[in-house]
Sequence to fold (176 residues):
Amino acid sequence: MVQAVADIKKEWDQTSAQLRERIKAIEACGNSGRGTEEANSLPRLNGAAQDGIALLRSLQFRLDLLAQQLPTMEQSQSEQATLNSWKNEYQSLHLGLRNANLQANANIRRAAQEERELLLGSGEESTIRRRNLQTKAGMTTAAESITESLRRTRQLMVQEVERSASTLTTFGIKGS
Fold:
């Protein structure tokens, strides 16, 4: 029982450290000047952070169950104190995640505004940026076109297989 509590504490420490790193990464989103690119990674970072939050909640629950089963009252009270500190840390991390997301969204909006100003501005950097975006848009359009063509080809193949199956069924009935 005591070893299980020690394992949970170790897992808590690792998970909370990872969560702090993810919160820092979320908060820094949009600061590097690649607002739209970093905006795409924000949901992935948030998903990982939410997984960490859920794991911490689970660890709290497990410690609460185990603390009640410890052999001595002193150990049980000690783990209840640990549990209370974890609850405070959990609330702090949850609030930190919320604030990091607010900061990331503000950073991304600011970076997107700067990108728009650069694109609409004049000069060599604006021209290069517009050219790069046009190239990306062209590649995206080409990829969408290829995907749609593959969908149509697949549909035609499905129809042909159904037609062949129908023909075989018809010949099978007439041969009987």
About this structure: The domain at 2-120 is CATH 1.20.58 (Methane Monooxygenase Hydroxylase; Chain G, domain 1). The chain has two domains: 2-120, 125-176. The chain has a mean pLDDT of 84. The helical segments are 2-28, 35-67, 73-120, 124-175.
